[in-house]
Amino acid sequence: MPNVTDDAMRVREIELRRVRLPLVRPFRTALGTDHERDALIVRIATDDGEGWAECVAPREPAYSPEWVGGAQAAIREFLGPLLLERPVDSGTVAARLARVKGHPMAKAALETAVLDAELRATATSLAHRLGAVRTSVECGVAVGIADSVAELLDEIDGYVTAGYRRVKLKIRPGWDVEPVAAFRKRFGDVPLQVDANGAYTLADATALGALDEFGLLLIEQPLAEDDLAAHAGLARLIETPICLDESITSARVARRAIEAGACSVICIKPGRVGGYLEAVRVHDVCREHDVAAWCGGMLETGLGRAANLALAALPGFTLPGDLSASARYFTRDLTAPFVLVDGHLPVPSAPGIGIAPEPDALRDLTTSIEVLVKP
Ligand code: MG
Question: Is 101 one of the annotated active-site residues of the chain?
Answer without folding.
Answer: no
